[in-house]
């Protein structure tokens, strides 16, 4: 029986078994219910103010670059028609990770799995072509969460895509340029953009005499190579997916080309693949397009961080051309000299932990060309190329970099604190504080004051120190009577008396805004 | 039987009845499926780029004010434990509007209904007090959508709340100040903040001898007064909710006090209620607190837009103190002189339409004090006061104001377009365009160029005109050979030849950034 607890202060409801109406049962039941309510869903998390700020800074950097290239943004609902998201050939095996809404009103909806299919739906519905768009929003995947590695069930994506016709590799190379600029500005360390081409990949599979109806499943195995050793992937290919041993071993030769020759230039890698492919048309097409891409990357000044990687095989089915994946190869903070003493003490331990976690971070951005997607869900056709930033992973790297450098992120940007001081019997001076705050706010100066009637001056000082507020305006009854206030520098504790009428001007001066 | 279509280009799946495998069936089935996928869920909508920009500008204004007062932000998941959201005494009758997720993995979740309960959950979980926070995020209500009036099933909220102890009416009056500043800056017209107090309201119900166990249901009827005439509400109270006629008529005297005396001052309204209440303790307490609030509103310089309204009764159950609702009383664009000629032509018609829709807009912000909420879901106690902006409604007003004033919102902020020109046989000059763009991007100049190999100059000019891009850099084979480019002012069509090496400096000059 569902009933309300009869204890006066208990507002929680609980399931009461008949005959067990003692308070004890209620307390236990209430505790259970409270703890059941007082958590977040599995695989999700809250972000505290400082964490939210760091994440927002990452997003702001990305958006600034997207806008610099003329991208627009638009907004789509967080849930879409279930028939759209669960369509075959869309997310492949990952379809099972989609969250469905309860069918409460006749139509079936699901939470978006990425921002790409909603983009394609929007383009198909509105028959749009020829535009760049960015989209920052949360997506949902009912995957096994790995919180320590930044893998959540709810996470932000921060996508850039170009929809429309483009000269060969023109839009694709601009994607490379944007992503390169973003990671240079993020200052997370050395990075490399691994690049491959779906047509080249298919060509190599043909050369190895792998049957074309096995391409998708073979690519899905190849995609595991950054998490599993070759022996395991080989075993899966031969014994689970029934690919002939000779074909698998021939494939191995292509896949390890880059790993076994880390110093080979991109051109040499392409030359080597070409030499082994006996004129296969897809290999030739893929190589020719990648050479064009490399030429443009040189014009953009980013070619030294582009790495042709024949083993790259993105998991999703919808890619049709260039595919790429950005990885951090050496973090900027592993050897960074921390500023703050406290972090120097922790340095040794933190470094090892960071280094260990780094190797697990995986790709921080990924994308590619997907020319068939819009056509597959509408009667409109528009080629697309784009990428997605792994905001949660980047956020974790920025957070660790800040830690390593002893940087503290403030929760707010408050400039000034209007404090009150005086003897025990002093008045609350609320009206005076409000009047001064009103003037400061009017001048766009971020200002706070204590909500208590008679706060201790020490508490107000501590609040400023804890929150990094550099300036205090202190008023007391005597000062008010004389038409003055004290202006205090929180760090040095130096004070000067100024006329109340000068408060705004003096604070703007201190902020370098006048 | 679920099967894939056998037509080569058809990637959609459909339900195929045995024996009807003709292409015709497939085409029909596919068309149905495509149209079923190519829409957004009921009550939701996409926002196009210009719309997204306007909405973002509204949000930016609000957030700027929240930060000015020292508010932090944090982020919570879009879905919460179902037991939290569906708790009794939380959303009252509106609980049925909550979207549930399918139980796919053992735990039951629901989409958030507002940002207030997630805030209370966060505060209770982390035992936090004494902070101001803002939160901009989407919330979900399975209500009957009224798209024309800006009521959707998915919509943004933009909340400000203070959590923690505060001197009487101190945090409450700062809420009033913030909301007033935001609407002054939004420039939507004249507005008024209607204010009431839950304790005063309860006191008036006591004075009318309405039984206390009927308070909630009576308030729920009163809440309908801005949509329904008094005769209907009276009928509901007397005949459905069984309140004595004398009590209802006495109540009517309180509720119409403001409407019947629009010129009465706030103090006079409170005096009149006091005089009619025969020393009722709750009335006295409510009036005393509201007088303090009015005093602080005067110090903040906002009292002329505060209106004590005894008939205001917010629907949600969790309010315990001051409640308020901001309404636009006269829009700024009804009599606005439009700048652009074209909108002058449409003026008469647009004005009538706008005026008509305006009366339906309803409240644009609302909030109040809710001291019991955190305690009701956790073992932690923290009083709270805050409000929520009706972003969708405000957005619609801004959009109509811009229309009335002939303002056009650009989709992007692109500064420069790098164009190419030449004879039929001219080269694509992609590498040269990329090099120039790279320099401009590096100087944080928003730059685009055509993705076509040999675009017509006229098309490139039109693109600039359509997208409000003021400056073109035009290159051709001859110019490249001579190390120069043309700098063109799109509006005046004036051109000058400048050295390639001067491009960045000249553009920065034009942008007033050097």
TrEMBL record, chains A, B:
GO terms for molecular function: ATP binding; histidine-tRNA ligase activity; RNA binding. L-histidine binds at residues 114-116, 141, 157, 161, 314, 318-319. Gene3D superfamilies: Anticodon-binding domain (3.40.50.800), Bira Bifunctional Protein, Domain 2 (3.30.930.10). Keywords: Aminoacyl-tRNA synthetase, ATP-binding, Ligase, Nucleotide-binding, Protein biosynthesis. PROSITE patterns: AA_TRNA_LIGASE_II. Residues 43-398 form the Aminoacyl-transfer RNA synthetases class-II family profile domain. It holds the Pfam family tRNA-synt_His. Its EC number is 6.1.1.21. The keyword Nucleotide-binding applies. GO terms for cellular component: cytosol; mitochondrion. One of its GO terms (biological process) is mitochondrial translation. The keyword Nucleotide-binding applies. It catalyses: tRNA(His) + L-histidine + ATP = L-histidyl-tRNA(His) + AMP + diphosphate + H(+). InterPro entries: aa-tRNA-synth_II, aa-tRNA-synth_II/BPL/LPL, Anticodon-bd, Anticodon-bd_dom_sf, His-tRNA-ligase, HisRS-like_core, HisRS/HisZ, HisRS_anticodon. Belongs to the class-II aminoacyl-tRNA synthetase family. This is histidine--tRNA ligase. It comes from Steinernema hermaphroditum.
């Amino acid at each position: 029986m569902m009933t309300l607890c009869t204890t006066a202060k208990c507002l929680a409801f609980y399931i009461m078994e008949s005959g067990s109406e003692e308070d004890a049962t209620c307390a236990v039941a209430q505790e259970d219910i409270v703890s059941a309510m007082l958590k977040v869903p599995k695989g999700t998390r809250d972000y505290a103010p400082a964490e939210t700020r760091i994440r927002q800074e990452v997003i702001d950097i990305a958006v600034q670059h997207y806008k610099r290239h003329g991208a627009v943004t638009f907004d789509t609902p967080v849930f879409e028609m279930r028939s759209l998201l669960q369509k075959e050939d869309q997310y492949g095996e990952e379809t099972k990770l989609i969250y469905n809404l309860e069918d409460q009103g006749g139509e079936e909806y699901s939470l978006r799995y990425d921002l790409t299919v909603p983009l394609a739906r929007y383009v198909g519905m509105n028959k749009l072509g020829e535009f760049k768009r960015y989209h920052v929003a949360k997506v949902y995947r009912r995957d096994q969460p790995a919180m320590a590695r930044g893998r959540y069930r709810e996470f932000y994506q921060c996508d850039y895509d170009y929809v429309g016709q483009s000269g060969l590799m023109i839009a694709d190379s601009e994607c490379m340029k944007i992503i390169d600029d973003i990671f240079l500005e993020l200052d997370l360390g050395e990075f490399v953009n691994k690049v491959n081409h779906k047509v080249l990949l298919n060509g190599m599979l043909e050369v190895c005499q792998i049957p074309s109806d096995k391409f998708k499943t073979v690519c899905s195995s190849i995609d595991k190579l950054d998490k599993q050793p070759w022996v395991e992937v080989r075993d899966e290919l031969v014994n689970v997916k029934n690919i002939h041993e000779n074909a698998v071993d021939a494939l191995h030769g292509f896949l390890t080309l880059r790993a076994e020759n880390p110093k080979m230039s991109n051109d040499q890698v392409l030359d080597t693949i070409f030499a082994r492919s006996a004129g296969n048309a897809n290999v030739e097409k893929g190589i020719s397009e990648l050479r064009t891409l490399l030429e443009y990357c040189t014009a953009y000044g980013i070619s030294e961080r582009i790495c042709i990687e024949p083993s790259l095989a993105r998991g999703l089915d919808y890619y049709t051309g260039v595919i790429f994946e950005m990885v951090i190869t050496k973090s900027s903070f592993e050897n960074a000299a921390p500023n703050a003493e406290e972090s120097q003490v922790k340095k040794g331990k933190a470094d090892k932990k960071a280094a260990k976690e780094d190797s697990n971070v995986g790709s921080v951005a990924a994308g590619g060309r997907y020319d068939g997607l819009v056509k597959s869900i509408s009667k409109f056709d528009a080629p697309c190329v784009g990428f997605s930033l792994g905001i949660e992973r980047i956020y974790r790297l920025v957070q660790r970099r800040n830690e390593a450098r002893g940087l503290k992120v403030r929760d707010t940007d408050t400039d000034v604190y209007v404090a009150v001081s005086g003897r025990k019997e002093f008045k609350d001076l609320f009206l005076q504080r409000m009047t001064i705050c009103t003037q400061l706010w009017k001048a766009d100066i971020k200002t706070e004051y204590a909500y208590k009637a008679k706060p201790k001056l020490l508490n107000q000082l501590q609040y400023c120190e804890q929150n990094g507020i550099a300036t205090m305006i202190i008023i007391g009854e005597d000062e008010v009577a004389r038409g003055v206030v004290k202006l205090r520098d929180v760090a040095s504790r130096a004070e000067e008396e100024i006329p109340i009428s000068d408060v705004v001007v003096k604070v703007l001066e201190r902020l370098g805004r006048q």
